[in-house]
Design goal:
The protein is α/β, with parallel strands linked by helices and about 300 residues long. The chain contains 14 helices and 5 strands. It has a 5-stranded parallel beta sheet with strand order 2-3-4-1-5, sandwiched between helices.
Length: about 300
């Protein structure tokens, strides 16, 4: 006889991937007391009318504590159509919390964007393009292609269409751009495909040769505009950016991008734009500039430590 004759193992997913969820996989999560506390705090953070108490969220804990799965459940509870979460709510034993979720979701729904890992956070331009690309992609996949806020890719596409001769001139002068796209039509095709390298080379060439600035606003301002558009177009009542495996960002990010994230988090006080960061550990307890900057950034968040929990 073998052990397998007596024991069977259900399908097992060792790491929960928020960007590659199986259909209904989030519903296997058992809402523990710790989870309920995080969910309650998150709802308070995004709904309070007190400006100083409106904050983005940062969930931190060691590997294997289930924080990615827990965060996914929070995403679904806040962002899915109410009919899709109604059955799951019966798993929440805290009647007050269950009622809070029901009351919130019967009147409001948030739109989610899910990021994972570094996501192009190598410099501010690449970082900004990556956030724009993922936000527009999430909206497009949800059926909202007509959002009024243009990305930098779309704005550049329009500029090239209206200035083909100028574009041809800079292509001729700049080898880095011509190596990627040798004609205005090829530049446009690359921009329509959200190719960051083409955008960056075009942006550099136009800035250096003609003092043309393609990007008009910071990424924090762009996201605020996008959040307002999401509300105005009746898509949702706010925008939440869930960023899993944020630890890898902390390991590579520099002060300039830390300031960008801090600026985005500060928007939570003024509009319904929120970050929801998920990292495997707390920020580096170092005295270098990056450690200090990350610590300063964390002041803009409601920090929640997540530990292995008993059922």
């Amino acid at each position: 006889m073998k052990y397998s004759d007596y024991i069977t193992i259900q399908d097992f997913m060792p790491v929960y991937d928020m960007k590659a969820e199986g259909e209904g996989a989030w519903q296997s999560f058992i809402p523990t007391k710790q989870f309920c506390n995080v969910l309650n705090s998150a709802i308070n953070d995004i709904t309070t009318e007190k400006k100083t108490e409106r904050k983005s969220i940062w969930l931190r804990g060691t590997f294997g504590t289930g924080k990615s799965h827990a965060s996914s459940v929070i995403k679904h509870l806040l962002c899915d159509d109410y009919e899709k979460i109604e059955n799951y709510l019966s798993n929440i034993e805290d009647a007050n919390l269950k009622g809070k979720v029901e009351n919130l979701r019967k009147g409001k729904r948030y739109f989610p964007v899910v990021l994972k890992g570094v996501e192009g956070a190598y410099d501010i331009p690449s970082f900004s393009l990556s956030l724009q690309k993922e936000t527009k992609k999430a909206l497009s996949e949800a059926g909202y292609d007509d959002i009024v806020v243009k990305s930098d890719f779309e704005a550049a596409d329009t500029w090239v269409e209206e200035h083909r001769q100028y574009t041809e001139d800079v292509i001729t002068k700049y080898d880095e751009l011509s190596a990627i796209a040798s004609t205005p039509d090829k530049v446009i095709a690359k921009l329509k495909a959200d190719d960051a390298e083409t955008y960056l080379q075009l942006s550099n060439a136009l800035r250096d040769s003609m003092d043309v600035q393609l990007s008009k606003v910071s990424i924090s301002e762009w996201l605020e505009q996008m959040e307002h558009a999401i509300e105005e177009q009746g898509i949702a009542d706010g925008l939440i950016i869930f960023w899993d495996e944020f630890t890898s960002v902390m390991d590579t990010i520099k002060s300039d991008r830390i300031n960008v994230l801090q600026n985005i988090a500060e928007k939570s006080q003024h509009c319904n734009l929120f970050l929801f960061l998920i990292s495997h550990r707390t920020e580096q307890q170092s005295l270098d500039n990056r450690g200090k900057d990350i610590s300063k950034m964390s002041d803009r968040f409601d920090i929640k430590d997540y530990r292995m929990d008993e059922l």
